[in-house]
Amino acid sequence: MERKLELWKMIDPITQKKLTLLEQIKEAEGSVSIQTLADFNNWGRETVQRYLDLLWKDWTSGDYDGVTLIRTNNQITLNWTDYRSFYLFRLTICENSIAISVLRKLLLGETVSLTDSVNHYFVSESTFKRRLLPLKAALIEYELTLSSHHGFFFLQGEEHQIRVFAYNFFWKLYKGCKWPFTVINEQKIAAISNYLLDQVSNKRNDTNNHQIWYVLAINLTRYRRGFELNWTDDQLKLYFSQDYLAEARPWLNLFQLPEKEILFFFLLTQTQEKVLSLSLFKKAVLSFHETTNSDVFKATELFFHYFSEYIVTLSKEDQEKHYTYIFANHLFSFIFPHFSIGMSGFSTSYGVSNQFPVLANKLVDLLEKLTAETHYPLFENRDFLIPRYALFCSLLLDISSFEKTIVVYVETDYPEILENHLIQIFYDCFHHYFKLKIVKKCTELSQQHADLVLTTSLVPMKEIKADFIYFLSGHLLTEDLIKIETILRNIRER
């Protein structure tokens, strides 16, 4: 099953319909009629009109530079100067939805009162609770629970699990387009980040910086509101040496930072290869885990052993080059064994199993072997590890090479140079996802059979048995590529 943080699943149906219409109006060339929207969505005109009225109210209630809605008779037009302006308008609609508003407050440690909420949204208690049902269902996947007691809502779960969920939620929702942490000064957070990670500044771009600022802001906001990490000294010793824990840190007072929060932040950075790959951090972290013979170290060593045996033979150079990548992901899985989407909502194993089913099965077998031998919980986080193992494979070879070969026969009336150009475009588009064998001569076909024939000719092909034939009326167009991809998927799934 696909598991990734999808805000859409948490939003109530009313907001979903408004956002659907907004996107369709944006994509329309010029104005679009109410009837067109009704036909496209299979809704009644009255339904479309009702949600357009709500959308219009959203727009007129705020000040959105660069975004203009125009209504004339039965037509509506959306003008926008750039995507960021459009996204800010879309973001406001999301923020004002009941589920997102409640979750946002709870993740920042704020109090959510049922009485205050129903008064704010002008809805009944039953309607308000019903709007939260999609959110409740979505949270269960991450071992979090939305509960209520004496008229107040609470988010229940392990604090470090809530934190990593919050990192994903706020980044997915805001993407750095604005600062959503009103009680924390952005410049102060930037200064703390620059001080703590000064030696890795050359490895960070502006997006990385904002992601780090979000993490620090969430940690400090929750801490200041009484939500502390309940990590014992014994737990900290799993990740830091005794000497490191005993070091004096006078700069903590300078920034008014709690030590355990900063240690947790440093631990999170170790799960990111961009930081861990720097020699300054790499040597200290890996040496500590090797010296203590930690589960993460043993898991990583065993992974490379069985990966070479079951997937691809690795050279010593390959292992050394990519060691920190595997180690960092194992460390994350060790800390968060039940969180499948990482720090930034990276897609899960569904994409791998869908695109590369043979490779996915090999990786599942590998994880079963590792789990059976070690009984380490970190290896049970398959939705997290499989796509990252697949990425590792892609660094070593073309991962489509694991899949079944699809034979494509090409026969055109083009000049040879143009025909070769067509083949090259086709190959470039699909070879990363499908294992292709492209032939231009019947004699190269086994038993005169091809899975797919691409042709510009209508001459009957009496000598070739083809499962699919696709006629090209000219150059490869976008719609051709979409249809051909569907055919290739059908061939692979047979």
TrEMBL record:
Keyword Transmembrane helix assigned: no
Ranges where the Mga helix-turn-helix domain occurs: 91-170
Domain of life: Bacteria
Alphabetical keyword list: Transcription, Transcription regulation
Signal peptide: none
Entry keyword annotation includes Transcription regulation: yes
InterPro entries named in the record: BglG_antiterminators (IPR050661), Mga_HTH (IPR007737), WH-like_DNA-bd_sf (IPR036388)
Protein's recorded name: Helix-turn-helix domain-containing protein
